[in-house]
Amino acid sequence: MKVLVTGSSGHLGEALVRLLGTTGHEVSGLDLLPGRYTNLVGTITDRRFLRDGLQGVDSVIHTATLHKPHVASHDRQSFVDVNITGSLNLLEEAVSAGVKSFVFTSTTSAFGAALTPPEDAPAAWIDESVQPVPKNIYGATKTAAEDLCQLFHRDHGLNCVVLRTSRFFPEEDDSRAVRETYADANIKANEFLYRRVDLEDVATAHIAALARAGEIGFGRYIISATTPFETCDLKELRHAPAKVVQQHFPDFPEVYARLGFRMFSAIDRVYVNARARRDLGWKPQYDFARILAQIASGKPIGSGLAREVGSKGYHAETYREGPYPVA
User: Fold this and answer.
1) Are the beta carbons of 28 and 2 closer than 8 angstroms?
2) DSSP summary character for residue 76
3) Does residue 295 fall inside a structural domain?
């Protein structure tokens, strides 16, 4: 099968080209920026470029996007041009080229305001039944592109699977207050409980979606590390998460104390990946239990693939106040 991966110079795109290349697929990488895993350099806003790149392609994995870190550095029209019009161009040209399956990388940021419950409410249980309430142009354009995928499945029979991925970037947290309170490894370890996923697991979820797209037709799925929490934990998670974590992992306090780590004072949402594991046959390998074992033995967090791909950044510029500007 010939697969086109957009955004192949980015975190996920590179990981996908690497993994797909080991599974016998013929892979093409497309990106605006040159890279080791990109053989088609150009923009998804250029239809002629896409038309040429899609010749003979059986399946598309569309990861190219403007991200949340671009909200403060790019205007809204740029988000519409890339995330909506670029996705529309790709969908239309994919149908014209006879592409059979299309996997679209979306984001849990699409849920927006639905992620933050009132102060006196339990943590939010975020599964696919939760309706998105986008709170910025990034979330609005990603949900619009998701809807385009559904439209193209209905109108053209294109098998489309939408994956709403949680955090997998290796860069520092965008919150200065969080960065100044917790070590970076501490932040990421905590997040594996409820809002982070390893890059390798994200990539294998996309490959699983590609394999199951024909059976699914159209579907939306949350891609995050498997949480240890249950709905009965939600009330206490909001104000005393360390107590809940200890109930699930009795050795967690000793490991954290030895490393100088601390649990967050509150957890406001929990991403649930059960439907993705069931429908896609996806088997994520990195959860908090594995991360805890890694840090307890002095190993770096996460997969070797994530470390090999490394940090990509989101801007050519550097910023004094953090890894990227915040709106």
Assistant:
1) yes
2) H
3) no
List all residues 6 or more positions away from 52 whose beta carbon is below 8 Å from its beta carbon: none
> Rounded to an integer, what distance in angstroms lies between the CA atom of residue 128 and that of residue 222?
7
First to last CA, the chain: 42
**What is the full per-residue pLDDT of the chain (327 aa) written as tens digits?**
999 999 999 999 999 999 999 988 999 999 999 999 999 999 999 999 999 999 999 999 999 998 777 566 678 999 999 999 999 999 999 999 999 999 999 999 999 999 999 989 999 999 999 999 999 999 999 999 999 999 999 999 999 999 999 999 898 888 888 989 999 999 999 999 999 999 999 999 999 999 999 999 999 999 999 999 999 999 999 999 999 999 999 999 999 999 999 999 999 999 999 999 999 999 999 999 999 999 999 999 999 999 999 876 554 655 556 555 654
76: region left, alpha or beta (phi > 0 left; psi from -120 to 50 alpha): alpha
Residue 144 located in a structural domain: yes
Q: Which domain holds residue 50?
A: 2-225+271-286
Number of domains in the chain: 1
CB 191 within 8 A of CB 183: no
Q: How far is CA 91 from CA 41, 159, 323, in A?
A: 19, 11, 33
Domain contains 325: no
Q: Which helix (H) or strand (E) holds 126?
A: strand 124-126
Task: Assign residue 83 the CATH number of its domain.
Answer: 3.40.50.720
Residue 326 inside a domain? The answer is no
Burial of 144 per CB tally in 10 Å (0-12, 13-18, 19+): middle
d(CA 285, CA 201): 7
Neighbouring-strand partners of residue 5 = 29, 61
- Asked if residues 5 and 63 have their Cβ atoms less than 8 Å apart, the reply is yes
Q: CB-based contacts of 216: which residues, under 8 Å, 6+ apart?
A: 159, 161, 209, 279
